[in-house]
Amino acid sequence: MPNKLLKSPRRLLTAPKIQVRARKVRPGIIELVPDVVPIWIDGKMMNKPETIIYMALNELRIDNVPQFSILGGDILGGARMDFYLPRYEIDLEYNGPFHATSYGNARDALRNIGPASKGIRVEKIYETDLPRIKKRLLQIVGKII
Fold it and tell me: Model-level pTM?
């Protein structure tokens, strides 16, 4: 018995190294639109996907208020909407990878209480919606495509 115990640790020290292969990373949809530069709205910088959505909303002539605060904004327990569409009473939210985490889901659930209490419908846009963003925006607001 003692021999077996002594051999195991020695064998671990001389075990062959584990080889790890690098995983190929495919470019995301965001990287496929290189000419879009994030813009500043009211002193707040929008990320690249939000900039794409903002440009599409303006091209479709859909009235929008980017980064709109409701019920005191982030600091007072309210919310900040990515895009508020006042004519349609819609809060348009871009959900990136962060929102798929448990922390992101919990934060979104708390954030959505503010707009819902005011009768504002929350609509989400995902990265997969960006290649056909105009069509998706028209679906959300209920216009005929």
Answer: 0.67
